[in-house]
Amino acid sequence: MKTQKLFVVALLMSALLFGSCGQQRSAAYYDYKSKVIATELDGSYTIRAWGRARNAIDAAEQAMKTAVYDVIFNEIDFASGTAPTTTGTLRPLLLEVNAKEKYADYFNAFFDKGGDYKKYCSRKQERTLSTRYKKTEAQMQTQLTVVVYRAELRQRLIDDNILK
User: Fold this and answer.
1) What is the CA radius of gyration of the chain?
2) What pLDDT score was predicted for residue 59?
3) Torsions phi, psi of 125, nearest 5?
4) Model-level pTM?
5) Cβ(25)–Cβ(35) under 8 Å?
């Protein structure tokens, strides 16, 4: 009987010991969604976007790509309290089903390194020290404030017969 109690106690202690040794997960591995933080009267939107890459420069470029990509393909939520007249989400430019696959060649060239997506986004309204970095041994994640010129991007897609 005493041996059984000792065995149960040892089993519970080992379960607690090994249970507390769970994998520590860095915040750099989580996927964050872009948020609209401001709208301008010229048709541009200030978006808080995330990018993940091997170093800070590539992560910042990836965040800019993410912001433009989200404006084209995904709904973006407005950050709370940022746009009092606008609530809900910013609708994507392309509502067509399977538009990514249908125009894959066009968008692969558009989002290529040094591609035309850079013409439709800017970091000019970024405040000092507003960029956040989260780093692990393998990657870096950057939160970046990006201005996306949605009206000009929409006109480009119309001119290229992507958006009708």
Assistant:
1) 23
2) 86
3) -95, 15
4) 0.75
5) no
Neighbour-count burial for 35-63, b at 16+ CB within 10 Å, e otherwise: bbbbbeeeebbbbbbbbbbeeeebbbbbb
| CB-CB contact of 146 with 49 (8 Å) | yes
Closest CA to 135 of 60, 56, 31: 56
pLDDT digits (tens, 9 = 90+) for 42-70: 989 999 999 888 888 888 899 999 999 99
Residue 117 is given by DSSP the state G
Nearest to 47 by CA among 67, 31, 74: 67
Please state whether beta strands 89-90 and 121-122 pair in parallel, antiparallel, or not at all (unpaired).
unpaired
From the number of C-beta atoms within 10 Å of its C-beta (0-12, 13-18, 19+), residue 69 rates as buried
What are the tens digits of pLDDT across the range 71-108? 999 999 988 765 555 567 889 999 988 999 999 999 99
Rounded to whole angstroms, the Cα distance separating 65 from 103 reads 17
Distances (CA, A) of 71 to 47, 52, 110, 116: 9, 18, 14, 15
Instruction: Spell out the residues 6+ positions from residue 5 whose beta carbon is closer than 8 angstroms to its own.
Output: none
Per-residue pLDDT band for 131 (boundaries 50, 70, 90) equals low
